[in-house]
Specification:
single chain; alpha+beta; FAD/NAD(P)-binding domain; 8-stranded mixed β-sheet; 3-stranded antiparallel β-sheet; globular; binds flavin-adenine dinucleotide
Length: about 325
Amino acid sequence: MLAPQIEADGADPLFELGLAGRDRYRDLAAELLEDTGIDIGLWNEGIAQLATDEQQIPELKSKVAWQRQQGYLCDWLDAAEARDRWPWTGPAFGALWAPHDGALDPTSLVRALRADAERRGARLVADGATRIEHQDGRVTAVVGADRYPTQHVVIAAGAWSGRIEGLPRPLSVEPVRGQMVALPWPAEIPRAVLYNRDCYLLARGSEALAGSTMEFAGFDTAVTSQGVERILACLATLCPPLSGVRPLRTWAGLRPVTPDGLPIVGPAPGLDGLWYATGHGRNGILLAAITGLIISQLVAREPTHEDVSLLSPERYWRW
Ligand SMILES: Cc1cc2nc3c(=O)[nH]c(=O)nc-3n(C[C@H](O)[C@H](O)[C@H](O)COP(=O)(O)OP(=O)(O)OC[C@H]3O[C@@H](n4cnc5c(N)ncnc54)[C@H](O)[C@@H]3O)c2cc1C
């Protein structure tokens, strides 16, 4: 999902970056299609967050008001309007409507980015990095099954980032498991992306993707019956026509999460040539393209597209 307006809580420090991340895909999707022939499935037709009881209305309305005050398109739909747009949903006492939020297909995005990188001369090597080597305050190599001499290394190993040896300081990135369920999208319902407080539903191709859990389960990517049941119970409220429908598949992934919930993006203090691009939590797809752009600008010592001082690795290492 590309949902900065849905995910943001008031004056969230990631709000502006999230919007820039979302909007960057407009150009990138067209460029990738032209250059690689791969469609990343960009869909910008809006996301709604429903109030499923009256108590949720003030919080959602104040989120709408705050975003409008900042000059962004965001609407409050009353219960009748929400029912009109999504007659198939369960209880809806109103909805926050973010007309520019949307989604893409992350698998196609990765395929397109890989193809584009190779087209531009990158050589992709499948290896697991175990260690970073450095000498005299400068990175010299990445070591895995093989050794790769280099002047620059970007640590972008998701929840596993802190496991790489040779980093100058411990890295606070922990895995938070998220389980997902896919069901057949009901043929009579138009494509949509809907959230409520406890889950979300997204149409992709012929499937309805529903999620997700937020669990501290270490590096365990098992799908559990409790996790799936929780998602299906919430889905029965969000989309009653899917109630009792047999899932097509289930899976789980690990979000890389930092103690303050902000990604870690920037140079490692005290070690030239080492860069971090990790800890993106729930928003790593939304922020993938903008993070790539920012890291390339930092490495080239150019001004960055967005101010990322709040994401600096130094915030953890002032001792
Ligand atoms: C259920 C679920 C739903 C989500 N929904 C959304 C969403 O709607 N929108 C959104 O923006 N984000 C979403 N996220 C979050 C998003 O998936 C993550 O933030 C994002 O994947 C993080 O990207 P990353 O590249 O940092 O890490 P990852 O995607 O985890 O990729 C890290 C890669 O590094 C590899 N690796 C690990 N260690 C090494 C090593 N030592 N050497 C070499 N390679 C290594 C791993 O195998 C992996 O391929 C969701 C996450 C989950 C689990």
